[in-house]
Amino acid sequence: MTDRLYHDPAFAQFYDCHTGWSADKLYVRALAQGVAGILDLGCGTGQLGAALAGEDKIAFTGVDLAPAMLALARAQPGGDKAEWIEGDARDIRLGRTFDLIVMTGHAFQTALTDTDRRAYLETIAAHLSPGGRFIFDSRNPEAREWESWTPDLSREMLHHRVHGMVESWNDVEWDKMRKVATYDTFFLLSGTPDPIHAQSQIGFISQPRLAKLIASAGLRVDRWMGDWDGGVFNEEAPEIIAIGRLAAEQCGI
């Protein structure tokens, strides 16, 4: 299904109110220093790319399936210095390689099946330069974060530069067999009687299963982190963060 949260400009405008300049962006920005070219798969509103291209003068290419998100990326301060491409990270092939490939903001979890996850990983492998690195994140299913995506636990007030204070909350249904969370996002603008509403789906995968998929795509992991502060992954960690490279480099190929 087409996810209105990202594809509809009425919803996409609120994305940065939720995320802002988060810990994953700080980590990746530090990792990117000294890198010649970066590919961001699922770049969203382009906060990271605009900063890297505009302030850090790094060649940056962002790919996203949602035109509404890319429109916001182009409008970011520094966004005119980056390259923005509308495309599907499962099958896009740009015909060139990059020194760093990132897929943060849990964009990897938009893949609901192992077939789509493998396709994302094969895209990373197809675009990774020899000696280059990749990094991406996925929520650890053992942390059961979706249990907090209820109206009572998720309700918050957000500040929007045009609409002022906006009330936001979620609701969720968990499919145990598929390990897929179907969640609803609501925004209630001041002075309006009814919220606007979008429904999304994300998939969860265990770290051992993910490790097998990474290997099957011709990649290897050098480091598993459990949070964006650099903590080592364990079963109770909130995140599964993989940092690695092409598997062939293990043998010096």
Provide the fold topology.
Elements: H1 4-7, H2 9-12, H3 15-19, H4 23-31, E1 37-41, H5 47-54, E2 59-64, H6 67-75, E3 83-86, E4 98-103, H7 114-127, E5 128-139, H8 151-154, E6 156-160, E7 164-175, E8 180-189, E9 196-203, H9 207-216, E10 219-225, E11 239-246
Parallel strand pairs: 1-2, 1-4, 2-3, 4-5
Antiparallel strand pairs: 5-11, 6-7, 7-8, 8-9, 10-11
In CATH terms, the superfamily of the largest domain is: Vaccinia Virus protein VP39
Q: Tell me the strand order in the biggest sheet.
A: 3-2-1-4-5-11-10
**What is the CA–CA distance across the termini?**
41 Å
Order of helices and strands: HHHHEHEHEEHEHEEEEHEE
Give me the CATH architecture of the largest domain, please.
3-Layer(aba) Sandwich
- Count of structural domains: 2
| Percent helix range | 25-40%
Computed CA radius of gyration, to the nearest angstrom: 18 Å
The major pleated sheet works out as:
7 strands, mixed
What does the overall shape look like? globular
Low-confidence segments: none
Please identify the structural class as seen in this structure: alpha/beta
Q: What's the CATH first level of the largest domain? A: Alpha Beta
Q: Count of helical segments? A: 9
Number of strands: 11
Average pLDDT confidence is 92
CATH third-level topology of the largest domain: Rossmann fold
Beta-strand residue percentage:
25-35%
